[in-house]
Amino acid sequence: MGKCAILALALLVTSACKAPEESHSKAILGAVLIDGSGGPPLSNSMVVMAGDRIRGAGRASTVPIPAQADKINGGGRFLVPALVNVTPNIQGRDEAAFAKAREALRPAIGRVATLADAHWMLDHGATGFVGMIRDTETLDPDLLAKLRDLRITFAPALIAAGAGLEIAKRNTLRLFQAGVPIALAGEGANPLREAELLVEAGIPPLDVIVAATRNGAAALHDSEAGTIQAGKRANLLLLSANPAEDIRNLARVELRVVDGEIVR
Q1: What is the spatial distance between Cα 58 and Cα 45, in angstroms, rounded to a whole number?
Q2: What would the DSSP string read from start to end of 237-257?
């Protein structure tokens, strides 16, 4: 075999043995990482993606970068998970629908507006709610404890509360303070406006980010979304301003990552 043929074969073997994901890796360097888990923001972070997955996330000094990775400068910017918008999959007091969801081990998320709705749906196996109780502000501590202990997620949908908005806001804060998981439901409107309303209700911006990411994914039983952690799907937002200081900064998107692909 000639030298040229041997060289060509060697290059072919080297290329074939190289992990496909290494040549398609992307790394975002130096951003402030707000990973959706509820912990404090992490300065000078490193997030490495390959294919549609996050391969590593943490301090820049602890996350190795593949040699062939495309490097994206995140200095002075803020990295958060893509928002997760919860919509109910069961309308009204539909006993058969709740039973079917339970049998299939699927989320059973009902739309709620009254205290009676919440009690009925909870008794029939609801795993989450879209909407907020707005016919009363008398919420039984036992109910709050049950919602907390069962990890029943409430996505208040304040954007659709209408005349009951102020009651809905106060009840949202009560649930949050009781430890009930809060998520985000934009109800077909701008989810960023819903995030603003959650802050107006008294929930701190960092907790609203958790509501709009990790808690929403948990409500939908989606274990691959909601946080920036190794193994999760690479769906991220790189922001030009800090959403922990002003939740409206979630709208200041410089770069969007969808299933590992850069969308500007």
Answers
A1: 5
A2: EEESS-TTT-GGGGG-EEEEE
At which residue do the structure tokens 């009651």 appear? 167
Mark 190-202 as b/e (b = at least 16 C-beta within 10 Å): ebbebbbbbeebe
Strands 128-130 and 26-29: unpaired
Query: How far is 98 from 235, CA to CA, in rounded Å?
Result: 31
Q: How far apart are CA 208 and CA 244, in angstroms?
A: 9
d(CA 112, CA 115): 8
Angle CA 242–244–249, to nearest 5? 45
The residue type of 212 is A
Q: In 10 A of CB 104, how many CB atoms?
A: 9
In the chain, the amino acid numbered 14 is T
C-alpha distances in Å from residue 131, one per residue of 69, 145, 154, 164: 43, 19, 7, 11
- pTM, 2 dp: 0.89
Backbone angles phi, psi at 165, to 5 degrees: -60, -45
Its sign, for the CA torsion 191, 196, 197, 201, is positive
Q: What distances in angstroms separate CA 3 from CA 8, 9, 13, 77, 231, one per listed residue?
A: 9, 10, 15, 51, 43
148-195 confidence digits (pLDDT tens): 999 999 999 999 999 999 999 999 999 999 999 999 998 888 899 999
pLDDT digits (tens, 9 = 90+) for 70-88: 999 999 999 999 999 997 8
Look up residue 108 and give its amino acid.
A
> Which of left, alpha, beta for 66 (phi over 0: left; psi -120 to 50: alpha)?
beta
